[in-house]
Amino acid sequence: MITAIKHAIVSAADPKRAEVYRWFFKTGKGQYGEGDQFLGIVVPKCRSIAKEYHNLSFKEIQTLLHSSIHEERLIALLILVSQFQKGNEKTKEKIFRFYLRSTKWINNWDLVDLSADKIVGAYLLPCKQERSVLTELARSSSLWKRRIAIVSTFAFIREKQYTDTINIAKLLLRDSHDLIHKAVGWMLREMGKRDIATLVQFLQPRYKIMPRTMLRYAIEKFPEEARKAYLRGEV
What we know:
The protein contains 16 helices and no strands. By secondary structure, the chain is an all-alpha fold. Helix 13 packs parallel to helix 15. The N and C termini lie far apart (about 60 Å).
C-alpha cells in the first residue's frame, strides 16, 4: 500500500505551488525549514489522501513519516490522528509513544499544529500524571518540541483546563523564536476566549516583558481600547 499512497501523493503535486510553499515555510539556508522538500499539495487534498489510506500499517506510516517530502510527513500524521481517534486505549498509547519518538520528523509548524493536540494532548487529557512530559518538551533545545509542548495543551483548553497552558507559557515566556511567540500567544488567546479573567490574571504581571508578537496574539480578541492599552504598557 505504501507504493499506492506515494503514487497518489506524487500525482497531486503542483510545482508552482511548491515554489510558494518553499518560500512560505522558510526552507532557505539558515531558516527554520531549511532543506524541507515540497510537492505543493494543499491541506484538503492531503486530508483526502489520508482518509483514503487511513488503514495504512504502522510500519508504512513510519516509512511515510521518515520521508524528506513535507506532504508525505503531513499525510502520515493525519493518518496517525485518524487511527488515534478511532483506536482503543492500547492503540492510543502506542501512537502517543511513537509520536514522541518521532519528533525529529515533526519538523515544521503545520505538522505540529495539525497533530500535537490531537495525539499528545488528547492522550494526556485523562492522564494528568504523565503531563510532566510537556515540561520536558518545553525545556528542549528543539524548536519543534517546544511548539509541541504548548500546542498540545489546546486539548486541555477545550475542556477548560488551563493550568498546563499557563505553566508551559511561563516556561516559554522568554523564548527567542518567533514561532514559539506565536504559538504561546495563540494558546493564551484560546484560553481567553473561554475564560477572560484567567488570561488577564496571567497577563497582568507579565505583559510588559512578553515578546510583542506573543502579546499581540494573546490579546487579539480584546476590545480595541484594551488592546491599545496593553500595547502601550498602560494597563
